[in-house]
Design a protein that fits this description.
The protein is of the alpha/beta class. It has one domain: Rossmann fold (3-Layer(aba) Sandwich), CATH 3.40.50. It has helices at residues 17-28, 40-50, 62-76, 99-127, 148-168, 197-200, 204-215, and strands spanning 8-12, 32-37, 53-56, 81-84, 130-135, 173-180, 225-228. Pfam families: adh_short.
Amino acid sequence: MNDLTDQVAIVTGASRGIGRAIALLLALQGAKVVAVARSAEELEELNAKTHGLAIPADVSAEEDAQHIINETLSQYGRLDILVCNAGVGSFNLLENFEAAEWDRIFDINVKGTFLLCKAAVPHFKAQGRGHIVGIASDVAKRTFEHGTVYGASKYAQDAMLGSLRKELRPHGVKVSTIYPGLVDTYFNDSKPGAADSEKTHLRPSDIAQAVRYILEAPPHVVVDELMIHPMTQEW
């Protein structure tokens, strides 16, 4: 297995939910965690447990994305892992969506992934190794009512990561995508711990364990895509 001790890992959307669970687990495995989110207060609380680096930032802003990479390299001298987890969602009939909501969802889910990867890829290629893990969604593989905008963003993110996987493979850089089903988080203004959520939803720690599984795979093993969803979820 690949040892995560002292590997430098950026995790976006780390202040709560899936991102927080990933950051905590990677720190537990000995990684140096760079936690990124918009909430400075929540990041500081997390950083007290991970003992890494906290960077308040908006991943959809190009200068912020480059700042995240620059600060990581300045602090640790290298970057081994990039987990693109930051994401937002909203569900409605297509005609009820405002263009501004389309922009918000695509800015975080698609543009944010693009900008972080764009800033990190030259470093990964130069060192001949690295691992990008994108947290997509099972809706990148299916469609459903009220999911026109969110689903479109996840299809776009999935296509981008899939193409990037082929671009970077000759350079020794891995790109993996995880497709979670329903997860008990704050997503779409939900509150964790809702009635029966333990029976119908995955836990953030389930996704964190999936990330760990991918990252700890031996160097010659490549996990391109990993679907994870509760057995009760209907397709």
